[in-house]
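Readers of this paper often ask what the protein records in our data store actually look like. Such a record has a labelled line for the sequence and another for the backbone structure tokens. The tokens are whole numbers drawn from a learned vocabulary of local backbone shapes. We quote a single record here, exactly as it is kept in our systems:
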Amino acid sequence: MYLLTTSSARQISTVPGLPNIPPEHALSVVPSPKKTLFCTLTRNGVAVHRVRPTTVLAFLSRTPNSVIEHGENVSVHWSPDSSRLVIATSNSYLVLITLLYDSSRSRSPDVTSPFRHAPGEGIPLQSVSMQFEGVIRVHGGLASVSPRQRELYFSTMSPPAIQRIPWPDDEEDEDEDAPGGELKAGHQMWVFNDTEFEWFIMPDVYVCKIVISRTTGVEAWVTSDGRVYFVRLDLNPLFNEEHQAEAEGSSNAEQYQESSADISSPPHVPSQTTWTGTPIHTFQTPRWVEKQRRVDPTEQLHPRREYDEPRRATEIAINGRFSVVAVGMASGGLSLSSFPVSPNKIPAVNTPASSHALEWSSDGYVLAVGWANGWGLYSVGGRCLVSIIGGPDDEGSSNRRWSDYWTGGVRSLFWAPGNYELFVLSKPALHSVEGSLFSIPFAKSATTSQHAPDNTRYAFLQMEDRALVYRGADQPDLSVINPESDVWQHIKIPPDYLEHAHPVKYSCLSSDGRLIAIAGRRGLIHYSSTSGRWKTFGDGEDADIDEEQSFSVRGGMVWFHHVLLAAVELTGRKGYQIRLYSRDLPLSAETILHVENLPSPVVILSLVDNSLLAYTTDNTLYHYLIVPTREGIMLHLCGSITFAGIIQSPGMVRCLSWMIPGAQKQLGDPVNDLAVATVLMVVGGQLILLRPRKSAENEVKYDMQIFAERIEFCWIHLRGIAALENSLWAYDGSAMRVWLNALNIENTDEQASDEDELSTVRVKESVRMELDFYPLSVLMDKGIIIGAEHETVMRSNLPFVLFRHATSSHLFLHHILQYLLSTRSLPQPRNLLSRNRIRDAVIFASHYQSLVYFAHALEMLLHQVMTDGQDDTQPSDNTLPVLVEFLDHFDCSLEVVVGCARKTEMTRWRRLFDVVGSPQALFEGSYLLVLHNLEQMESEGQSHSGDAVRLLQKAIDAKEWQLSRELMRFLHSIDESGAALREALKAVGLDSSPEELQNGNELVVNGTEEH
């Protein structure tokens, strides 16, 4: 979950502060592989910037002769090790620039400054210089560039081909073995033909964009016809020894000078390697377009019609964390596809402009989209979190005061380290050359970095310099459902820590919400809301920076009462540990309670009761028991199990927990929990349960149950209320999906045999709740789902956009009760099972009947059952009689029925009261409006107020003057002429003297007016 913070975008200048350098519009902004640096490209120059603090480190301007001869700059690319920049020009040249980093000339920040440094600005500025290395001419029209570790890949248009050349290294490096035992490749060319590239859907295309995922190694091509392919370079089975000498003779193009080189197209011979591809984004071309290709375009009788395919791919971004690829189309729409391909089309957000930029956050949860006329943010499940289309500075606008140009269109963008800032390059401003680069601040859920159970118990947001904790769970009921209530606690992170440790990588919350731990680039700190104090290494002037910098948290942190458990990686030497720190002791190396060494890094930590689960990169799950001792507390290793063959990529595990059978909890030894536990994981967006079973050899094997795909967050409630015990809650980008009693869900498919290594089944959810906001937490004791949504404010008197977020809530009680009372899935006979379900529903609802909005939840339940029917008169099953019997167990049942009837169409009333009972027998419970409308349905045109008159008579006899007042107001409301009121007063004997009703100053009736 990502939210725009209560702030505005920061404008950044892209013009270097150098003399005799005319300002130029920035064409693109490209981050380095580690996102600590970025470069801005202009028509004739390139500048390298540091992300934090945002400042120019180096600038290189091309000479006018170079621009005329080689062409203007078009695009720029970083090498994987950030040692080179490759610039593609308009005349099909590649300009190579070397970056030199000199740590001896690094500049430390001014410690004498009276101002505090912003987060990340305490790190010394690194000295960077750029040197011109050479120019490479590419024949055939340069289309795209993709630098690799040891080679440079690029594509050409004529002939359509993919080529590869080595980097121009020193002579002594050319013969060294490459990593993996492969020799360094020379110049190689793969020409597109029908033999080696038969997997192309359309012929005569070239590659216009090459994208490779650094985390997974997945490579994708965007072809000129707008289709996208996953590709892989394999050995060519057609290659033989006869072609080897010919291939070696054609590779002489790799011998080029550092100052200039000419890459022409060598004669095509079968290559030792070949490309294989799979289409992941395609479409059906209209027939008239296909026929048009068969006509000679030079013939005057057959003019060629222009056709712009709206589904044509313009941008692509690969999400290795969730195995999702996003494709931006010319229409502005998006397509999300999983590995393997299962497309999920997302329509455009009312924008006819094409997609210019796509960028996934490093955690994979959100996708930033830049359109030609706006920008947007999507979750991995496809939910639109924010979108701004068009701005006051669109073409033709005369608003010169407007400074947020990015609202009218984005050319390129990227996420800063930590994903707390989104850098966007707007389209060229109409009235200014500089100031087209902006930084948009974000707040994100702490579960994006660590999906621990305690982090999901409270709504917990992390910003760049503070943490936000939702305290509505500790407030009265009305404060929870009131969106205007300020129930967020802002906890400022110490600036001294963020100066060197920015960005914040992990945040964790204790089970009671009182203790918070923060871990940045190095070290960690923790906070107590009871004392309001942070504890850091050394605290204050005696701060031990060396100890803080000696390790970094990797894998997360969890709280066990007042003890913090952190998975750390040692800096400077290879080592991985789980450390235990006490909140009550100073934070230092000497006060560590316990250290547990591990052979590999931790992917994720999870705490269930007193059991610590640690899942590592070698695909092993460790189970520890937290054992108190006389000296303090320690970890006891109970066992470990490997998931080799079950989890293919350990780095894709996002959530970890388990559920223990009841018999094992009560009678079993906790040391043996690992052998009988059902393990819950979110792997690459899949919510799965691994159920243990014993094979014939008495080995533990697992049955896999896939609950859902593309899950963004999930909540597990091991100690839920009644029916919610062992329930799973998951959000997939559109709805909250709930599986009740997930521990006992039986497989719907046939059980696997003992010989099967892994059995996979799919399970449908029990309840599905559509939400119009993004959920952050499930408050079990309040019966509410808490979430947030962003708000953007654009005012004519302000030159910028304001951001803020609002808290939203959704009741889930009526959804759970409807499932418990539903009889659609009950076999015959229904009576016994219906009784059991009523009993379960009553037990569940009794835990919430003290809430002030409990009656409202029951009213929503009744209304939902009434409106779920197949026709206008009755529901589709027998749930309504069961529901009415359920309502009779609560004192507010009459109030619920009346409230529902008043908000339901009159055509459904007959069915409702046939089940509830006669309104005439219940009208004392405020059924007057229902009675009046029922009488009108029976006999149109007649005045029926006898029930109201009878009640008025009883109210006067009992001297209930407030009720008399309400009855008279009701009689006047149903007949504004006053006839009904006069008839009623006459019937009770008060037609001549209404003042007789006055008791003190409580009520005075004069005619039809009330004084």
